[in-house]
Amino acid sequence: MTAGLGDVAGPADLAVTPRRPSAAARRSRNGRYGRWLILTVAGIYFLGPLIAAIAFTLKDSQGGITFTAYRDIFTTSNGQTTLGGALVYSLLISAVTIVITLGLMLPTQLLVHLRLPGWRPFVETLTLLPLVFPPIVLVVGVSNVYAWAAPPTGAAAGTQESAIFHVLRFLREDSHPLLLALLYVILAMPFTYRALDSGIRAIDAQTLSEAARNLGAGWFTVLFRVLMPCLRTALVNAAFLCFALVMGEFTIAAILLYTRPFPVWLAQLPTTSGQVQAAISVFSLLLVEVILLVLGALNVRRPASRKE
Amino acid sequence: MQTPRRTRLAGTAALAALGLALAACGSDNSSSPTATGSSSTTTTDWATAQSAEAGGGMEALVAAAQKEGTLNVIALPPTWANYAEIISTFKKKYGIKVNSENPDGASADEINALKSTKGQSSAPDVVDVGNSFALSGAQDGLYAPYKVATWNDIPDGQKDTGGLWTSDYGGYISIGCNATKVGTCPKTIKELDNPAYKNMVALNGDPTESNSAFQGVWALALANGGSADDIQPGIDYVKKLNDEGIFNKTQVTPATVASGATPIVLDWDYLNVAEGTELAKKGQKWEVNDPADGLVSAYYAQAINRSAPHPAAARLWEEYLYSQDPDGGQNLWLKGYARPIELVAMQKNGSADQAAVAKVPPVTDKNPFVPTQDQVTKATATVTKNWAAAVAG
Amino acid sequence: MTDSHETGGTGSTRSRRVPLAWLGLTPFLAYVTLVFLVPIGFILFEAFRRTTTTGATRDPVTQQFVKHSETTFTLDNIHDSLQGIYRTSLVTSVKLSAITAILGAIFGLLLATAVVSSSSAFLRQVVTSAAAVTANFGGIPLAFLFIATLDANSGIVTLFLQDHFGISLQDDLGLQLPELSGLSLVYLYFLIPLMVLVMAPALEGLKPQWAEAAENLGASRWTYWRLVAAPVLLPSFLGAVLLLFCSAFSAYATAYAINSAFPLITIRIDAVLSGNVLAGQGNLGAALALLMIVFVLPLTVIYQLLQRRTSRWLA
């Protein structure tokens, strides 16, 4: 793909063929040790606290093991939504978030990369801004906008409602929380931008698109049949990031008084038990992980990278 | 990934546009969520009724509330002063659905919600906020005036003269202690200063954010020569405990209490006692003492949203909370180990649930601690200024 | 979005195309403005205002107060936000974020290399998805994980070290969960996965041919990394460090859950905008938020300058 180093490697290969196997073997052995060392240390660091928390949730008052804390999660209901309902609600929000994110970010980033490189610093900084503010600032800002657009305090119900207010109220409706999806796109932007950006940079989109254009492809073809398949890893990463964010984001949804998104539902399960609360945290982490693994497995089974 | 993204985007945009059109149509009708009550049999607009009598009597109120069918509450944790039972009893008694939003929210969140949810069917109908928020909300015109039937049983000074807010329940700052883990539990504030309690003593949160932590600091101040005018000795005492390694800064949650991470907690007595009941189920002993050398009590306050989507239900809820019936709010709060505002009157007229009264930690409070609003403001400023430096490091 | 007038793509017609291509940015700019800049703008605007209430009169019929107050434009909030505890909080936030960003970047890069170079697709999948989940996992749940492990009273590791080795986590190892040392460790839990997520695609972009070519030319592994891989990765790496810094800088819930007294600027903002004690301090909270952005913007400028410099090496 990149002309250059690949070509240089060609003639040199023949000259040093005899020496390569053992050097390569030695290097791969060392590499393998290093890799396993890193993975082990990482495993201990990430799994250790999780195991400690799980141990606490399984503790019986007599010192044995009990699963009551987890059973309570499935059997406790907050009276209105079930676990399944909350999951579906959040899944739908994440689907909308992913669609908006990819639909907005991918064309924009490709545009900047291919045609407007001078805009890159500006766009990049813009995508970093949502990360600078704690979520509470954004949600209070949204509340302020809403309060500003709303009819004045003393107004009778249903009167003095501006068009902006109608839009905001519609977006915020509990049955179709588009406002959440819109905000989550913003929250995810710093990460999805990077994920897509790394991917775009790595595939040399310029050459690819030029080559495709030279062969007569229109821009739609270039985007959907040339660039996107090459960017699959980045796209999937970005989608996973959105998904994980939506399934884990609590503050904004709770303060905007939504009760049905999965993380909010989970955190607000009526329980007096500390053990159940800890079990809830563990459960949310593991559940989202399992979902992502399943989705990832479906992804891996497709033919391997076509980058060659 | 096979379906063109652009199509999906267009589809979403079309949906949004359609939705906007529908919303625009919908708002032209006069039956928006906030215009309720006007079509009930009596022509009362409960949104402006300042008492049940003024609206046509309790039966009319109940009927109107049941017609509305839903009540939105906010920031009411089920384990807080027995709110779980209060909510479920209300539901059963009147057949009205209760939508409990953001149960872990704080008073500021409640005020923000009031300011920013006009026209939403999910706007909170009622709030339960700390005293300074009751006052500031009243000044900002967020509340609807309403005087419950038992208005005269509520002490003056614990209610807004116009009925914009009313104190509901309160408790004393107490020392909760895991007797199984700690051995000898501290009963007074001075006893906290003991190297045996290394890393054990925690406030419930940060005093600039959490009301119970703020009042906790005041309790510490009273035990160390402070007063309603002077909260600094409390901050100094925390600094002392911190320097000695006794002060624990982990945020207290039922999980940390159950796991033993926070064995000694300064918090409202009704919360500590409830925690103890929960722990007793697991075989752990949690002792609760109201410290005689630092008796600080505070009440929270009820207020009705001026733009409540369900004004009749909101008022019925208030009547229910202040009712002195055996299954009314006052007695249920008592059951939650809190001291209801009408307790004095209820003891006099015999409606207080004596069994519940017995479970509330006993307190001999000769000089009730009732700071004025100015004193509270001053203390807040002092804590904001000096707290972080005192507990750093 | 990209206009369809363009033919053949040699790029030399750029100056003529730019105005049209510029329009292609409109959806993105409009979106960010409406959904992000406007709400944030509302708040930051409040940083410059202060309301003084001179009194309130009550209407005897409606019982409502008519507040007599004056809202003026002032720099007092900004001034207050740089004093005392707020200044300490800003400094501590910066310290914590910088330390954890750098450590997270280094460890994250190592982990990412280990994962990417592995031949097991399953491992890659597990780590990538786990990273996505963990990067978003924070607040009380994450805090509890570490409290269960390292808490001074009841942490499993603390007790284990104490009972079996007589080592005190606090006194001998200097690791206190509620202090900078412990909190840094906790922050890495969501920062390292973030780094892995961000760097994995960049690492995958390192062609194996480059490594082979370097090796054929006699370079050692270290030389390859230093002269070939590092320059290629540097822009992504720097961007990732900045990302980690901002992520740590704006984190709040986890630190609050572990140590509600820890001086972080985000904790201060939350106390004011979402707390139970300080009513009517919204303007100060806005000033603090303004402070945060004012601090970070220069960093992004520096990053962009560094970017431009390092990308020259690639040209």
Kindly summarize this structure in a few lines.
The complex is a heterotrimer of chains A (308), B (393) and C (315). Chain A contains 14 helices and no strands.
What is the strand and helix layout of this fold?
The complex is a heterotrimer of chains A (308), B (393) and C (315).
Chain A: H1 5-15, H2 20-58, H3 68-75, H4 83-114, H5 120-132, H6 135-149, H7 163-172, H8 178-202, H9 205-214, H10 219-230, H11 232-248, H12 251-255, H13 262-267, H14 274-300
Helix pairs in contact in A: 2-14, 3-14, 4-8, 4-11, 5-8, 8-11, 9-10, 11-14
Chain B: H1 5-28, H2 52-55, H3 58-68, E1 70-74, H4 83-94, E2 97-101, H5 107-116, E3 126-129, H6 131-139, E4 143-144, E5 166-178, H7 179-182, E6 201-203, H8 211-223, H9 232-243, E7 247-248, H10 254-259, E8 264-268, H11 269-281, E9 286-289, E10 297-305, H12 311-321, H13 329-335, E11 339-340, H14 343-349, H15 354-359, H16 373-391
Parallel strand pairs in B: 1-2, 6-7, 6-8
Antiparallel strand pairs in B: 3-10, 4-10, 5-8, 5-9, 5-10, 5-11
Helix pairs in contact in B: 3-12, 8-9, 9-16
Chain C: H1 14-23, H2 26-46, E1 49-58, E2 65-73, H3 76-81, H4 84-116, H5 121-135, H6 139-150, H7 156-165, H8 180-204, H9 208-216, H10 221-250, H11 253-258, H12 265-274, H13 282-314
Antiparallel strand pairs in C: 1-2
Could you characterize what this model shows?
The complex is a heterotrimer of chains A (308), B (393) and C (315). Chain A has 14 helices and no strands. Chain A is mostly helical and 308 residues long. The N and C termini of chain A lie close together (8 Å). With 393 residues, chain B is of the alpha/beta class. In chain B, 43% of the residues lie in helices and 14% in strands. In chain B, the strands form two sheets. In chain B, strands 3, 4, 5, 6, 7, 8, 9, 10 and 11 form a nine-stranded mixed sheet that branches. In chain B, helix 4 links the parallel strand 1 and strand 2 (97-101). Chain C is mostly helical and 315 residues long. Chain C has 13 helices and two strands. The two termini of chain C are 28 Å apart. The interface between B and C is large, with 55 and 46 residues.
